[in-house]
């Protein structure tokens, strides 16, 4: 070995500390390089290794005297790592010119040590070092050039994109899942293979790539040589610095006390004095559970008010082992209990025992204890304070009945003559005559003021309905009996009126070809010479007859007529037509609007309102009752009342809603009829409980004000016959009088 010159002019001298660090870094670099080589090619033998031991090249090593670098003849020039160069520079910078007496090591000695280690450790400098590059030119270009275009766009095509030459990349035939599974079982490296969708090929990962992925999954750096805990190198030269990093003057706030800190201290002092801040005190442990029915104070019970437990029901005479005879039910009563709902049945049936020792164990004791626990558990947790309110103040403030007079209150006259229950009555438009129909098959005309019976028709069947013509100059009467409707001449008018009535009631014989398709085999118009009028023969039983306000039309109702249950007849032309609407349900009552061309049809569940001109349904009134029995329309036309079989009277404001505005539960039994007064704000209802109720019903012209409904009077006087009570009621057209017809064959007039 040629020794290096120890002349300081050729190269700076190195101390012993810098050379030792350099040797350690070189050895560390060699060990890491060997480890990477062994991991990359673990199966290669030592014979095939491209590395040559350092002992073979020791004879060719030489040191250059010109530049002091180390050269090798048998291998390429070895390159020091960046850390090694840094150490060399630091060692050169740390050398002291005046420290000549220290232990200096020449470059020749360093090189000897270096080559000595290399010869003993089998140096790897003889192999070709491959430098890593991060240049994008070294990356393999993708075969598919579609870029960011989604592959879903090519799912219906035979290719997946285009290569660099612009040719289509055809899709490969995909294996079935079974074939791919068998292939993966046979291939030991199948776990390294992934499918590249963009290039349509399988790529096998190398060991380095799998290790890199594993490090990424563990949250580590991708490169294994990266040291996350490298020692900190302070590059700033602190020694001999004459100026600070910042030469700005000191701020004023560093020399005066902070007013914000003084305010904070003052606030804390005040909190300590008030006792809001306490020291050396442990917080009280709040109990997790407490007795709900404990009579302790609210402070001890976490602020909850004391709620006494609900008291259990004390046993009565029924629970006695030897009750009185009136408390013991009979066998019939016990059998009747079984027909009731479970919630309506008595929970305990008393029995009689000779002594207390003979009482058996109670079979429902467990259930009653459980119910008692439910009462305690589900008891409300908040006290409800009772408000001291006078019950009378909760009642609506209604006007006095004296201010609402006149209204019918006293029975003034009785009309006797019928031998059976009077089913229907009707008052003539002038208020002079009264017509009544009975179950004995007779129709009678009464003079209202005197009670004299003017005329009687015996029709042979129970009369269902009688109705006067609303026009006073044509005093005709429509009567529904069985399948027939009779239009009778009452002969109550003048001679000129009689001539007009005779012309109207004249019917010419009908021809078969004149019958329309809608009314064929439904109604037959014929002359009734026996009773002096017109006979309309229907195919089903008729229960209701209603006149139109002009007196030329009348409607008939046949509940069992299905689609032809409601018919409208024109008296002047002797024609019949069916209403152009489908009636859903069984109709029970009909009525014309008092001022407009609107027709009301009441079924058992609802009321349907139809426009006869537009021929369409305009409203549906839902009464919400068990079964509708009758209907009446207010003279104004915007309100209606509906009676039901369950004793309810519903007032409808048709401009407000399709639901009842008021529901009056006055009667105990079925309502049979309801009626409005033409001029007075009165309406009435009658029931099978032998009573008739009179109400005040004021309808205001102001739409913002609701109707005023006030009960006025309960009219009694009829007796029960065949289980029925008051069958019908009608108001006088001009006076505040009410007529009632009862099942006791009496007609009564109530006046004010």
Keywords:
single chain; 752 residues; alpha+beta; 5-stranded antiparallel beta sheet; 4-stranded antiparallel beta sheet; 10 helices; 16% helix; elongated; disordered N terminus
Tally of alpha and pi helices: 10
Low-confidence stretches: 1-17, 42-130, 133-138, 513-517
Strand order of the largest sheet: 12-13-14-16-15
According to DSSP, the number of beta strands is 35
Radius of gyration: 58 Å
Q: How far apart lie the N and C ends?
A: 151 Å
Q: How much of the sequence is in beta strands? A: 25-35%
Given helix and strand content, the structural type is alpha+beta
Main sheet attributes: strand count, strand direction, barrel closure: 5 strands, antiparallel
Shape: elongated
Q: Give the % helix.
A: 10-25%
Mean pLDDT across residues: 78
Can you lay out the helices and strands and say which pair or pack?
Elements: H1 16-40, E1 62-63, E2 70-71, H2 82-94, H3 107-120, E3 159-162, E4 168-170, H4 177-186, E5 193-196, E6 201-204, H5 207-217, H6 259-274, H7 331-338, H8 365-377, H9 391-394, E7 410-416, E8 422-427, E9 433-438, E10 442-447, E11 453-458, E12 463-468, E13 476-481, E14 484-489, H10 495-504, E15 523-528, E16 533-538, E17 544-547, E18 553-557, E19 566-570, E20 575-578, E21 587-592, E22 598-603, E23 606-611, E24 616-622, E25 628-633, E26 639-644, E27 649-653, E28 662-664, E29 671-676, E30 682-687, E31 691-698, E32 708-716, E33 726-731, E34 738-742, E35 746-751
Antiparallel strand pairs: 1-2, 3-4, 5-6, 7-35, 8-9, 9-10, 10-11, 12-13, 13-14, 14-16, 15-16, 17-18, 18-19, 19-20, 21-22, 22-23, 23-24, 25-26, 26-27, 27-28, 29-30, 30-31, 31-32, 33-34, 34-35
Helix pairs in contact: 1-2
């Amino acid at each position: 070995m040629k020794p290096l010159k120890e002349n300081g002019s050729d190269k700076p001298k190195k101390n012993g500390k810098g050379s030792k660090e350099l040797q350690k870094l070189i050895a560390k670099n060699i060990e890491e390089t060997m480890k990477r080589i062994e991991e990359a090619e673990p199966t290669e033998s030592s014979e095939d290794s491209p590395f040559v031991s350092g002992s073979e090249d020791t004879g060719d090593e030489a040191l250059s005297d010109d530049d002091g670098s180390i050269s090798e003849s048998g291998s390429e020039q070895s390159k020091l790592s960046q850390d090694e160069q840094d150490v060399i520079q630091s060692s050169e910078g740390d050398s002291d010119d005046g420290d000549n007496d220290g232990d200096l090591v020449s470059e020749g000695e360093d090189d000897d040590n270096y080559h000595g280690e290399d010869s003993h450790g089998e140096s790897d400098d003889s192999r070709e070092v491959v430098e890593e590059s991060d240049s994008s030119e070294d990356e393999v270009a993708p075969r598919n050039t579609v870029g960011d275009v989604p592959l879903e766009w090519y799912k219906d095509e035979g290719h997946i994109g285009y290569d660099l030459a612009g040719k289509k990349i055809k899709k490969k035939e995909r294996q079935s899942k079974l074939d791919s599974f068998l292939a993966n079982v046979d291939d030991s490296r199948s776990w390294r293979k992934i499918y590249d969708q963009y290039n349509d090929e399988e790529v096998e990962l190398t060991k380095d790539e799998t290790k890199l992925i594993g490090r990424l999954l563990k949250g580590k750096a991708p490169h294994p040589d990266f040291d996350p805990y490298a020692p900190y190198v302070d590059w700033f030269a602190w020694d001999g610095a004459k100026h600070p990093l910042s030469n700005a003057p000191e701020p004023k706030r560093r020399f005066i006390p902070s007013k914000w800190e003084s305010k904070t201290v003052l606030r804390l002092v005040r909190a300590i004095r008030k006792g809001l801040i306490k020291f050396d005190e442990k917080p009280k442990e709040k109990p997790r559970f407490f007795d709900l029915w404990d009579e302790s104070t609210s402070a001890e019970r976490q602020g909850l008010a004391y709620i006494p437990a609900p008291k259990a029901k004390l046993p009565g005479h029924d629970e006695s082992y030897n009750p009185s005879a009136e408390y013991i039910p009979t066998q019939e009563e016990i059998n009747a209990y079984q027909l009731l709902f479970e919630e309506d049945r008595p929970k305990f049936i008393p029995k009689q025992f000779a002594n207390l020792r003979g009482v058996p164990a109670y079979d429902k004791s467990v259930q009653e204890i459980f119910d008692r626990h439910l009462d305690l558990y589900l008891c409300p947790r908040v006290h409800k304070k009772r408000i001291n309110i006078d019950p009378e103040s909760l009642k609506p403030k209604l006007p006095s009945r004296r201010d609402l007079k006149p209204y019918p209150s006293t029975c003034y006259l009785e009309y006797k003559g019928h031998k059976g229950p009077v089913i229907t009555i009707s008052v003539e438009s002038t208020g002079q005559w009264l017509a009544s129909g009975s179950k004995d098959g007779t129709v009678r005309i009464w003079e209202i003021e005197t009670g004299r019976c003017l005329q009687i028709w015996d029709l042979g069947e129970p009369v269902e309905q009688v109705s006067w013509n609303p026009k006073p100059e044509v005093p005709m009467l429509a009567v529904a009996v069985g399948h027939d409707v009779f239009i009778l001449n009452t002969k109550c008018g003048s001679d000129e009126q009689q001539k007009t009535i005779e012309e109207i009631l004249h019917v010419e014989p009908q021809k078969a070809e004149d019958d329309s398709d809608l009314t064929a085999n439904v109604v037959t118009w014929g002359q009734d010479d026996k009773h002096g009028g017109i006979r309309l023969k229907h195919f089903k039983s008729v229960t209701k007859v209603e006149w139109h306000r002009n007196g030329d039309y009348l409607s008939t109702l046949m509940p069992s007529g299905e689609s032809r249950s409601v018919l409208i007849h024109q008296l002047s032309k002797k024609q019949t037509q069916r209403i152009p609407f489908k009636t859903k349900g069984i109709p029970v009552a009909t009525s014309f609007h008092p001022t407009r061309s609107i027709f009301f049809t009441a079924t058992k569940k609802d009321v349907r309102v139809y426009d006869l001109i537009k021929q369409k349904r305009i409203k549906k009134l839902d009464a919400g009752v068990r079964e509708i029995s009758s209907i009446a329309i207010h003279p104004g036309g915007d309100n209606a009342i509906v009676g039901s079989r369950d004793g309810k009277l519903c007032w409808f404001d048709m401009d407000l809603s399709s639901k009842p505005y008021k529901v009056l539960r006055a009667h105990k039994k079925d309502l049979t009829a309801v009626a409005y007064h033409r001029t007075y704000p009165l309406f009435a209802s009658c029931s099978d409980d032998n009573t008739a109720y009179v109400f005040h019903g004021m309808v205001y012209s102001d739409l913002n004000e609701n109707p005023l409904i006030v009960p006025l009077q309960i009219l009694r006087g009829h007796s029960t016959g065949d289980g029925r009570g008051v069958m019908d009621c009608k108001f006088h057209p001009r006076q505040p009088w009410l007529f009632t017809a009862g099942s006791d064959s009496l007609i009564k007039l109530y006046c004010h």
